[in-house]
C-alpha cells in the first residue's frame, strides 16, 4: 500500500481517486531512496509506473515544505512533447488536492504564452530541452532555487541530438539538488558522461533489461525484395491481423506520409504522426487514436517513447529500427503491463545485417513468417558451406610444389657444356659462329 511510504494524506487521496492502490515494482524500489533525498539512476520497462515513482517524491517535498517565495522547485526534462504532456497531466492529477502547480513548456506552442505562464512562478516545470534552453537564454526563467531535476528517457534525448541543450540546462541548475535519471535502457553510448556530470553518488535501480522487457511480445520477421512488396505486405497485415490498435514505424517523415495516403485508400482508418506536425495537429491525431476513431497510426520514432495509449497490440516495423535500443522502445509500445503483444518487422536485403545485430543484442531470434502470395525472391543471404566458403564458389587448384613440377630433359650437348668456361668472343647476329676480327 502507498500509505506505508508516509506520503501526505492529500497525495494518498489523489492516488485513491486514480485507482492506484498497490505500488508497482518500480514504485516500491524507487520511493524509499527518493523520499530520503538520494540521487537515483533508474531503469525499468515501459509502462511500469516510472512516472508516478518520480512524481510522488517531488510532490511530497512541495507539500511538506511549502516555499511560496521561491522560484521553480522541480524541473522534469523529456525528449518529446507527447511525453511532456503526459507527465504534466499525471502531475496535475496527483496534485489535484494540493496547491502545487505544474506547467508544460515545449516547442510548437506559443512562446509568449509560455513566458507569461512562467512569470506566475509554478513549482514544477515539465518540458523539452530545445524550448527550455530558449527561455533560459532570454532570461524568462532561472533555476537558482531548483530542488529536483528529473531526466526522463535521458538516452532518447541524446539520441535525438539534445546533448548540448541538456548540458546547457543542467549547468544552469542549482548544484544543491536531488537528481533522478530514468530510462528503459541505460547502456546507450555517451550516457555515461551525462550521468557523471549530473548525478552525485547515485544509487542504481535496474529492474529490466532490453531482453526481459520484450518477454511478453512475440516477434516475427517477413522478408521483402523492396518497398513495393513491403507496401503490399503491410496492407495485407493491416487487413487480416486481429488487433485493437496498430502502430507502424518508418524511419522518415516523407515515407510516413506516403504510406498514410496509400493505406487510407482502402477500408483502413489511418493517422500519421511525425516531428514536422505542430502540437495541435499531433494532439488531434493522438486523441483520434485514443477515442478509436482511427485504429492505425503510422509514425516515425517520435512515437517510440512516451505514448501512453491503451490497446496497442500490434507493432509493425516497415523500416527496421537503427539500433537495438530503439527497437526495444518501438516494440515496447505493445505488450505493456504484462499484456501479450505482436511485433512484425519487414526486412529488405539491405536490412538483414541490422536485423542480425538486433537479434544478437536481444539474445533472441525473430520468428520467420511468410504471407500467402506475397513472398519475394529474397530469402536471406547466400548459404555458407561448412568449409566457410559460399555455395557455388569454384574450388581453387592447390599450388604445385617444386618437387612436383615435371622435369625438363636437357639435351646431351648442353649437359657436356656444364662446368666449361664460355667464350667471351662476340657472336654473330645469327647466334652461331663467332665473328672474325678485321685486320
Summarize the model shown.
This protein is α/β, with parallel strands linked by helices and 439 residues long.
Keywords:
439 residues; alpha/beta; Rossmann fold; seven-stranded parallel β-sheet; 14 strands; 15% strand; globular
Plain-language structure description:
The protein has 2 domains: about 1-210, Rossmann fold (3-Layer(aba) Sandwich), CATH 3.40.50; about 210-370, P-loop containing nucleotide triphosphate hydrolases (Rossmann fold, 3-Layer(aba) Sandwich), CATH 3.40.50. The protein contains 16 helices and 14 strands. The protein has helices spanning about 10-20, 25-35, 50-65, 80-95, 110-120, 130-135, 155-160, 165-170, 190-200, 210-215, 225-240, 255-265, 280-290, 325-330, 350-360, 410-415; strands spanning about 40-45, 75, 100-105, 125, 150, 180-185, 205, 215-225, 245-250, 270-275, 295-300, 310-315, 340-345, 365-370. The chain has a 7-stranded parallel sheet with strand order 3-4-2-5-6-1-7, sandwiched between helices. The N and C termini lie far apart (about 130 Å).
SSE map:
Layout: H1 9-18, H2 25-35, E1 40-43, H3 50-64, E2 74-77, H4 81-94, E3 102-105, H5 111-118, E4 124-127, H6 129-137, E5 148-152, H7 154-159, H8 163-172, E6 178-183, H9 191-198, E7 203-206, H10 210-213, E8 217-223, H11 227-240, E9 245-249, H12 253-264, E10 270-273, H13 279-291, E11 296-299, E12 312-317, H14 324-331, E13 341-347, H15 352-362, E14 367-368, H16 412-416
Parallel strand pairs: 1-6, 1-7, 2-4, 2-5, 3-4, 5-6, 8-13, 8-14, 9-11, 9-12, 10-11, 12-13
Helix pairs in contact: 2-3, 3-4, 6-8
Amino acid at each position: 500500500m502507498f500509505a506505508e511510504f508516509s506520503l501526505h494524506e492529500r497525495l494518498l487521496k489523489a492516488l485513491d481517486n486514480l485507482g492506484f492502490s498497490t505500488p508497482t515494482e518500480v514504485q516500491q524500489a524507487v520511493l524509499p531512496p527518493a523520499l530520503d533525498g538520494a540521487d537515483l539512476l533508474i531503469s525499468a520497462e515501459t509502462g511500469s509506473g516510472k512516472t508516478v515513482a518520480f512524481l510522488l517524491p517531488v510532490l511530497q517535498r512541495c507539500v511538506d515544505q511549502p516555499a511560496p517565495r521561491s522560484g521553480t522547485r522541480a524541473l522534469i526534462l523529456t525528449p518529446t512533447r507527447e511525453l511532456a504532456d503526459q507527465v504534466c497531466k499525471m502531475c496535475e492529477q496527483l496534485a489535484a488536492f494540493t496547491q502545487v502547480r505544474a506547467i508544460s513548456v515545449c516547442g510548437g506552442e506559443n512562446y509568449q504564452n509560455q513566458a507569461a505562464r512562467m512569470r506566475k512562478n509554478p513549482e514544477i516545470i515539465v518540458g523539452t530541452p530545445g524550448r527550455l534552453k530558449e527561455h533560459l537564454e532570454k532570461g524568462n526563467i532561472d533555476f537558482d532555487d531548483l530542488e529536483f531535476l528529473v531526466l526522463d528517457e535521458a538516452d532518447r534525448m541524446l539520441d535525438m541530438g539534445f546533448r548540448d541543450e541538456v548540458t546547457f540546462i543542467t549547468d544552469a541548475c542549482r548544484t544543491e539538488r536531488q537528481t533522478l535519471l530514468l530510462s528503459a535502457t541505460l547502456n546507450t553510448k555517451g550516457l555515461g558522461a551525462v550521468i557523471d556530470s549530473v548525478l552525485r553518488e547515485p544509487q542504481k535501480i535496474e529492474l529490466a533489461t532490453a531482453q526481459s522487457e520484450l518477454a511478453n511480445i512475440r516477434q516475427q520477421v517477413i522478408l521483402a525484395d523492396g518497398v513495393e512488396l513491403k507496401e503490399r505486405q503491410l496492407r495485407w497485415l493491416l487487413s487480416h491481423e486481429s488487433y485493437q490498435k496498430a502502430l507502424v514505424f518508418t524511419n522518415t517523415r516523407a515515407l510516413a506520409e506516403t504510406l498514410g495516403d496509400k493505406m487510407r485508400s482502402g477500408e483502413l482508418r489511418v493517422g500519421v504522426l511525425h516531428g514536422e506536425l505542430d502540437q495541435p495537429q499531433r494532439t488531434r491525431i493522438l486523441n483520434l487514436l485514443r477515442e478509436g476513431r482511427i485504429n492505425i497510426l503510422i509514425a516515425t520514432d517520435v512515437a517510440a517513447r512516451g505514448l501512453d495509449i491503451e490497446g496497442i497490440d500490434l507493432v509493425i516495423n516497415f523500416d527496421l529500427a537503427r539500433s537495438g535500443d530503439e527497437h526495444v522502445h518501438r516494440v515496447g509500445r505493445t505488450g505493456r503491463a504484462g499484456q501479450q503483444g505482436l511485433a512484425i518487422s519487414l526486412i529488405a536485403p539491405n536490412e538483414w545485417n541490422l536485423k542480425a545485430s538486433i537479434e544478437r543484442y536481444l539474445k533472441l531470434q525473430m520468428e520467420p513468417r511468410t504471407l500467402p502470395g506475397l513472398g519475394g525472391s529474397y530469402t536471406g543471404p547466400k548459404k555458407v558451406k561448412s568449409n566457410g566458403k559460399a555455395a557455388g564458389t569454384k574450388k581453387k587448384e592447390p599450388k604445385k610444389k617444386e618437387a612436383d613440377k615435371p622435369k625438363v630433359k636437357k639435351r646431351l650437348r648442353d649437359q657436356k657444356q656444364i662446368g666449361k668456361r664460355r667464350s667471351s668472343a662476340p657472336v654473330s647476329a645469327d647466334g652461331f659462329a663467332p665473328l672474325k676480327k678485321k685486320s
